[in-house]
Amino acid sequence: MGFREERTAFEREFEACYSTLPNDVTVMRSRLDAESAANPEWTPYRLKTLLYETIARECPVKVFRHFPFFYEIGVGKQRTDLGAGGIGAWLKEQPFGRELAAVGSAFWRPYSECGLSHGWAVLDDNHHSLGYDNVFRAGLTGLVAEARARLERGCSTEEQAFLEAMIAGLSAQMHLATRFADEARGMLLVETDPAVKARLARIAATAERVPAFPPETFFEALATILFMRETTQALEGNGISVYGHLDRILIPFYENDIAESRLTRDEAKDLLAFFLARCDAAFGMREARNHVGTNTTVVIGGCDVNGVPVFNEITRMILDVYREHALVDPKLNARVSSGHQEEFFRLLAEFSSTGSNVLSIFNDDVIIPANARMGKAVRDCRLYVGGGCQENVLENTEINSRATMYMSLPGVLLMGFFPERWDELARRDGFVIVPLDAARTSEEFYAAFLRNLRAVIGAHVAARNRTEAEGTRYNPCPLHSATISDCIERARDMMAGGARYSFGSVSLAGISTLIDSLYAVKMVVFEQKRLSLARFRDILAADFEGEEAFRQYIINRIPKFGHGDPGMREFSARVFADVARAASGYPNTRGGTYEASLFSFRSFADFGRRGGATPDGRHAGEHLSPGMSPSQLALGRECNVTQVLRALEPVDMTDYPVVAVLDVKMPLSPEQADPSVLESVVRCFVDYGGSVLQINVVDPSALVDAREHPERHPDLVVRVSGYSAYFRTLSPDIQQEVVARALAR
Fold it and tell me: pTM (2 decimals)?
């Protein structure tokens, strides 16, 4: 039986399982609490060892009759949990963890309530990748041997505790694999369907070999990736977004199996279909309301460690699977470069023209050098993957903290207009706000804004560092660390900077709204002298009430980012560069620094709803611009796709190593979309130096109708900033943003 024939049974089996999750882990949690209380001298590493052993021994494992791989453990997570919950998060829920979370919440809450920033207290709970290449190289038995050898060379007490916990975690993971083998063998005793019996027999045999030993076949490689990703999440209580750089990782296994006549192309494609369809089925993406996806990503294209472009039969099959089966998740990230084959560009354009709207395109020519500029080895930078939405992470070598600090750039601008509203918080957090209305020139105004931005970011970084420094006490992750290069050699947990690279990120929202606002002030106040800064401040405070003619003048007569105006092009390049400098270089507590990013996920909507009116003519409560895309007010005749792409030309996107995302909406039905036009869009994006591109092929009339009659459009999928979703499952305000952007074009 193949995926196409078995898909209905597969989805029903998954629905039956996941609709009854989570299983009750209350008794298990109580026993863990009691043992922890009875041993107050135990270190977090010893407590994590207890957790690993308890999960591996007691949590139920699930083997599906209609799914070829093994992975599910009943750890008490909700169906839509992204990997950071269940009993695996037990250590985070201890008194110290709750106290740390409370400290973080107390810091962030007032900023979040006014639409300036939001974030989390410790290391990012998600957006990570395993070191799949290290697992494939050594297997878990090999990693255990490396950890034991490092122990024998001599360690401090803390290093010894870390390495012993790592060995315990790897052993627990191997024990889980044997339990899956036993479960499959038990099911074989009562199974009557010959096809299912063959599947269960293969699961049992495979679970006895991998991931304890390196995979040898295409099937074992896929099984290893899924098992490692899912069980490491379950055991660590930490999300791992990435399935890996699949076409690079899998191609040697596929080619060897084909040469040895162990596998056909159709069989390999069928296995990929099951593997990739798991997320949609397990998370119930067709019905999950206001859910933002599974946070899972796969990567195709790009290059290998030597810089050789990756494009092969696995690449083609993955694109085929997404197109043929209309998958929404995992998020599909395609890495392209000027050195890639024409066929790759053509296939990506053809795929985009279908209106699947699940694809993000990453420009290697920008992202690799951007990461190298941060002091990372080029060989390591070549193995980056998208880690959740679009935020990248270097596979095997990097543990970052990408989605833990979001900041509204227009919010910082408004802080300078209304400093009196921020006096209490500024005193609390030790920074000074420069009032903008004292500026005598546009240069003084701009300099004051940048000073405020640096002050606010500095205060936020200082607060985050105070809590992030407690990462190993909060939730050490020695099992995950085992797969990351240098953690074993350094005998140091990833939460304490054991990885080769340990960077953080300031995720900046609304940069185009900011640029348009700064430029409006520059023009109407300082050049045209239509009004004073004090008067502009009063107009903003009143949300343009009684000043609609002035607002329309700003909207229609003042150039905006994405327009072809030479002055705006020069000004926007300057702002992009200065904002990146203001948000970069702050040290974190794990031996790395903060990097600038413009992916901002849903923050453009959240911050917009809570933020005041801005000088570009935006009303209070309206969305900010998403990622690095032009604002809603800029769209229309003066801001078509060609002009938006040309707006990238003067901007140096290597200032944003964590990526800067450009959303392009093509107001076409899939039947009207011309793949050759989309191919030109992708090539221009690469040539003009863009970072990450998302193309939405959406029929505006269909969107409008779907908002009123969702039952008529059950399969309509759109891309929203960092995730894809069925349009009918989105919240009304996000639906409105998607519709408005489509109509504006």
Answer: 0.95
